[in-house]
Amino acid sequence: MRDRIGTLLSKYDRRVPRYTSYPTAPHFGPQVGPGDYRRWLAELDPEAPLSLYLHIPFCDSLCWFCGCHTKVVQRRRPIAQYLEVLAQEIDLAAEALGPRRRVCHVHFGGGSPSILSPDEIEAVFARLNACFDITGDADIAIEIDPRDLDLAVIPALARGGVNRASIGLQDLSRKVQAAVNRMQSFEETEEAVETLRAAGIGAINIDLMYGLPHQDVAAVEETIDGALALEPDRLCLFGYAHVPWMKKHQRLIDEAALPGPEARFAQYMAASSRLVGAGYRWIGIDHFARPEDPLAVAAEAGALRRNFQGYTTDDAVARIGFGPSAIGVMPQGFIQNTTAMAAYRDGIGRGDLPIARGRALSADDRLRGAVIERLMCDLKVDLGHFGGDFTAEAAALDEMRADGLVEIDRGAAGPVIRVTAKGRPFVRAACAVFDSYLTPSETRHARAV
After folding, report:
1. Which terminus of the chain has a lower count of CB atoms within 10 Å, N or C?
2. Strands (E), 185-332
3. What's the average model confidence in pLDDT over 436-441?
4. More confident residue, 272 or 10
């Protein structure tokens, strides 16, 4: 059996995108700029609800596994200065959109949004509420690092309407934590969860990782058991992406301590099995949710979506991104803010939306993106439903079919692709078949498993 897994990994554990968008971010370019974005905003249906993403690009210490755009700060002044510019960007986008557009989802990401003070949080929400009509049932989520969380911040989050918190836990082993520069006790994580719930922020997500240095199955299972003791609504099980050529701080990680492909696979499968055994529904490749959770309900109904935060119930027609590196999603295409703080600040100072690059969608992009999203979300896709000619792609999946990873049936109008239970870990490899931009020589992506 181990030889069989090794063979499958050697064939399909390739460097492929996570497919949180299509085309993927490496294929965005400077051909889309601030003027295009302003026009796209003005063209949106004024009655359609929007989604907002706010990037807080600061942490008080650097986790060596991190793949996010962030900066370590020890003083409050850079944060305060940034929030002033962020408020101006919110004003610029709201002006382009028109008065107080309806918002159904808000997500604070980072970096570490929990680094903000209560006054700063209240100021951000005041600006958002002045510019947008955030619905009473909106999903408002924030990513939290328990290590930098001042518990006095939590009432401010609740007053702002936050109703979901994603808690970074990663791994409970002290040896693993030391190897990635993230020392975090179970007790401080538990205290954060309890305080959030006491304040009325009841939807709790726990973020876990496998494939970290010194991790093994026993360590991963111990972490899973600790996470389950917190009784979260959702858990995310992310595979560590070691890309030191892109994230130079990852060079601080001892590569010799990283588990090999078969060891990573064993960790992934052991963690997934334990979570399913505890009653959670396996959503896509790396999310787990209680059966009654909206994410599981959406998955059951075929209404699950995928974006840059992973699997989601967010079905807004457009997602407006704020902050350096933030990516927005529009019916017309994708846009991304500049990552450099100075360029971000200077652009907004001129009254420009700080767009550095993007991608206008072609009809073929939309078609392939829809196919890939359904495969990632549903683990199946009826190609006949989309109307394109995917004869070559279906044929390219024949080897995966022969290996028992996918099934290909004849539907009423075209092939129906189903990913098997054995094939779930390799679904990104199946999606890559439909990616017309991906080249075999690309090395910038994480491995498929």
Report:
1. N
2. 203-210, 234-239, 281-283, 287-289, 305-307, 310-312, 318-322, 327-330
3. 80
4. 272
